[in-house]
Amino acid sequence: MKKITIYIGVFVMLLAGISCSSEASLQKYYIDNQSNKNFRSFDVPASVLKFKQDLPPEAEEALASFKKFNVLAFKRDDTNQEAYIIEKKKVKTILKNPKFKELIRIKDKGMSLVIKYEGSDSAMDEVIVYASDKTKGFALVRVLGDNMEPAKIMKLATSIQSIDSDQLKDLGGLFKE
After folding, report:
1. Are 139 and 74 within 8 A, CB to CB?
2. Using the 8-state DSSP alphabet, how is residue 53 labeled?
3. Exposure of 88 by Cβ count < 10 A (0-12 exposed, 13-18 middle, 19+ buried)?
4. Per-residue pLDDT tens over the stretch 41-78
5. Which of 9, 72, 115, 167 could be a cystine partner for 103, CB 3.0 to 4.6 Å?
6. Are 136 and 172 in contact (CB under 8 A)?
7. What confidence score (pLDDT) does residue 61 get?
8. Where are the alpha helices (DSSP H) in the chain?
9. Which one, of 76, 80, 71, 52, lies nearest residue 170 by Cα?
10. Do the Cβ atoms of 123 and 134 come closer than 8 Å?
């Protein structure tokens, strides 16, 4: 009887160890850095996205599937160069997790943009946008919604050029001191 109790105890400890994995998660990263002085953190409702012209039906459906955007941005300056390198490395490590599937990657003149998603090819649970600039910093945007489909989001991405920049000017002000 004593051996059974020991085996059960060891099994419970192993199970607890597995469930409390030390693997960094995106959610934990957001929570840990919301009050960090180097970061700006805010939520944006999807309703702020306005377009100057009508969108194709697939793009409209993609837009309607968005609920909100969680934004976490690291503003780089002369005083936080080392922290920038450390935080950028942490984010890249988190995004290397195989549960995040890559949708698109763009690099141009010191800037890069990576869009990844979690979920299946037909229904994404979450879309992650990681944008970085060598001189300005980086931003992580979690797009939360319902029934988000990669094909429709790609159609929306091609329509982004017509976004009403006046609607987003206030967001840019959040990165200024």
Report:
1. yes
2. S
3. middle
4. 999 888 887 766 778 888 888 888 898 999 999 999 99
5. 115
6. no
7. 87
8. 2-19, 26-33, 57-65, 81-95, 150-159, 165-173
9. 71
10. no
Q: Where do the structural domains in the chain lie, given as residue ranges?
A: 24-173
Count CB-CB contacts under 10 A for residue 153. 24
Residue type for position 173:
G
Q: How does pLDDT run across 131-171, given as a tens digit for each residue?
A: 999 899 999 999 998 888 888 887 887 776 555 444 444 44
- Provide the residue count of the chain: 177
| Residue 67 token pair | 């609920």
> In sequence order, which ranges of 34-149 are alpha helices (DSSP H)?
57-65, 81-95
What are the tokens at 14? Answer: 């192993």
Structure token digits, residue 22:
């030390």
